[in-house]
Amino acid sequence: MAEYNRVSECVGLITLRNPPVNALSAAVRQGIVDTVQRALSDPNVKSVVICGQNGIFCGGADIKEFGSNMTGPPLIPMIHAIESANKPVVAAIEGSALGGGLELALGCHYRIAHSKARLGLPEVSLGLLPAAGGSQRLPRLIGVPAALNLITTGRHVTAAEALQLGIVDQVTDHNTVAAAVKFALSVAGRSLDPRRISTHPCPQQPDLDALFEEVMQKVRQSARGAIAPIACVQAVRAAATLPYAQGMERERELMATLFTSGQARALQYCFFAERAVGRWRMPSGARWDTSKPRPVHKAAVIGLGTMGRGITVALAQTGLSVIAVETQEKQLMEAKQAISGMLERGAKRRGVAPALDGVIYSQNIQAVADVDLVIEAVFEDIALKTKVFQQLSAVCKPGTLLCTNTSALDVDQLASETPNPELVVGMHFFAPAHVMKLLEVVYGPRSSPQAVATAMQLGKKMGKASVAVGNCRGFVGNRMLKPYIEEAFFLLEEGATPELVDQALEEFGFPMGVFRMSDLSGLDVGWRVRKGDGLVEPGTASGRSARIRQGRRYSPLGDLLCEEGHFGQKTGRGWYQYDKPGSRVARFDPWLHSFLGAYRAQHGLVARRIDHQEVLERCLYALINEGFHILDDGIAAGPEDIDVIYVSGYGWPRHRGGPMFYANMVGLAKVLERLEHYQQLHPEVPHLQPSSLLRRLVASGSPPIHKWGEAIKKLHSQL
Ligand SMILES: CC/C=C\CC(=O)SCCNC(=O)CCNC(=O)[C@H](O)C(C)(C)COP(=O)(O)OP(=O)(O)OC[C@H]1O[C@@H](n2cnc3c(N)ncnc32)[C@H](O)[C@@H]1OP(=O)(O)O
């Protein structure tokens, strides 16, 4: 797991070997301890180089080991042994040096990086802190403000930035190991005292207290209840104010709390879940590893409204050539200007040239004749989309993949309007499409595995968390959102306020509660859908019967606000009021509160006191319950798919792992018991009726989440 060679006669070369990322597993740590010892005791060796195989230095501690009893040599003494060595040790950094990998490099006396390498201490994103001395060495090396920034955000820096910050000593465009060996030869015999970072004092910083106060405030605000970022600030404070040994002790104490926390488990689950969703599978048995994607060199986007523009930008930024089609000349010109602006701003942020030439604009659908893939993003209207699909089928070369960007329409129905339904998939982007991480790739029973593989690969290229899901109303994300929103409406009827509901959800960790979110996205969106479903009735009827529609409890509150022209932020009025249309600061709306009072009186509803716990249980368990239905129906292949969708697209707090992980943490029996409780109180609400999968999982002993897949298979085979 760590190979030893002597090169250039007097350099001991240690190569970490643990594919794919040379994580510091017990065997790798043992290998490092042994090979360092060997190099130091060999009188012919004057200096040492540590590198990683296959162009990657080290991806950090082996995260898979965290859940089990850790064995093997611990990291901290291993790194100390390197730092206190009497021969210079040089880290040759290619690919990544992350977490424990960078901490290992910080224990070395010198660091040489390849220009394409990335370095960072991302432990915070796993619910941890850099506890192999990273929180104590980095501030000593680069100063407190820069170290705070890196450690609390977990961001990766380029080699150029690492050089500028002083993390690395040299950057090379050539063979990094060769450069490190040359460097190691040049420094052999030099005094190492100034190179041992742990012996440095932290660089002086004026007004340290004010700095930590300010950073702590910022971190608390953005952490939304996550504890690791706060512990990171505390650890860096220890580096700035305590001698090294005491700082290390503080680092150890803080890590001990984080290491066993539910948040760390949730965040580490998210790390693996995000990778697991790439290994998609369909109910037909088709899978990621047996389905070859088609190459996509040229793509087209049809319809350049908000979604089409964002999708065009996302595609162009991957380096694809894109034909952007909009039939109306004025809209085409406006879109061209908007897309160019987005490309220019994005390129400026990333320090690259804007891909303006990658987009060709056209008013004519014939222009897409030779593309490999089309994403249709016209208005959400099945008749319009059907017409576009029929035109595309006539125009495109054989084999072109036809994708529809829809959040609600039936992908199968569209597919059935084309001569080649196997080439049709849904690509559900989230606005703004060039920014939002999530992409639902929606397959129907006739979508070919190759079409799914191609859309999934394209999503990955665009940097999206791409999740393959089956076709159903609302797919996964919006289907689960429906009971969540409905429960929030019911809570208002029963006595809650938008402020109370939102506060409970925001304290849970959502960036916005359901009502602030609804004001942002526009109340008219849901109104249009409910009208389409025949649920909206002109509103003077009163009493319970007026609130039962299509045989189930219905709250017309959202419809009534829309009838008043209160569409949310865009009209300046919604569940809150705003200074002016378009303004974002939500304020208490006295009108809304008297409206709610009058509504309750009209319907004979008596307001009662509702607490945060009830808000969370009713909104979240209703949403989770729908997640179990989705798993049972085979719409999502596993709980990870649902959780990645919710964390990357719906603001579910990452440190709570996603709705299904949260249910697993709360305990399935408890979720079932609370759903049964609320269902008894509200028998006319079907979404509170516990899913049969949830019942069966509880009956089978509530297996842990990583065993649900197996349990579901077994339960299905028993049906
Ligand atoms: C005392 C505690 C001390 C230290 C704490 C730590 O060091 S915590 C770990 C800190 N390190 C990280 O957070 C890095 C995590 N990894 C990554 O960011 C990326 O994997 C990386 C290294 C940039 C490579 O990205 P790439 O896109 O090339 O590959 P991918 O992410 O798909 O990973 C490939 C497979 O490797 C597995 N993996 C990656 N890192 C680790 C790790 N640190 N431990 C265990 N496994 C790791 C990853 O799950 C993938 O596995 P697969 O089975 O193929 O899905």
Automatic annotation (TrEMBL):
* Locations listed in the record: Peroxisome
Principal localization? other
Q: Which Gene Ontology cellular component terms are annotated?
A: peroxisome
Q: Name one GO biological process term.
A: fatty acid beta-oxidation
Query: Catalyzes what?
Result: (3S)-hydroxyhexanoyl-CoA = (2E)-hexenoyl-CoA + H2O; a (3S)-3-hydroxyacyl-CoA + NAD(+) = a 3-oxoacyl-CoA + NADH + H(+); (3S)-hydroxydecanoyl-CoA + NAD(+) = 3-oxodecanoyl-CoA + NADH + H(+); (3S)-hydroxyhexadecanedioyl-CoA + NAD(+) = 3-oxohexadecanedioyl-CoA + NADH + H(+)
What sequence ranges are listed for the domain 3-hydroxyacyl-CoA dehydrogenase C-terminal? 474-578, 615-701
Cite a single GO MF annotation. Answer: NAD+ binding
Q: Where is the signal peptide?
A: none
Ranges for domain 3-hydroxyacyl-CoA dehydrogenase NAD binding? 298-471
The record's section on Pfam families has:
3HCDH, 3HCDH_N, ECH_1
Pathway, per record:
Lipid metabolism; fatty acid beta-oxidation
| EC number(s) recorded for this UniProt protein | 1.1.1.35, 4.2.1.17, 5.3.3.8
Which Gene3D superfamilies does the record match to this protein?
A: 1.10.1040.50, 2-enoyl-CoA Hydratase, Chain A, domain 1 (3.90.226.10), NAD(P)-binding Rossmann-like Domain (3.40.50.720)
Keyword set, alphabetical order: Fatty acid metabolism, Isomerase, Lipid metabolism, Lyase, Multifunctional enzyme, NAD, Oxidoreductase, Peroxisome
Quaternary structure (record): Monomer.
* Family, similarity comment: In the C-terminal section; belongs to the 3-hydroxyacyl-CoA dehydrogenase family.
Q: What is this protein called?
A: Peroxisomal bifunctional enzyme
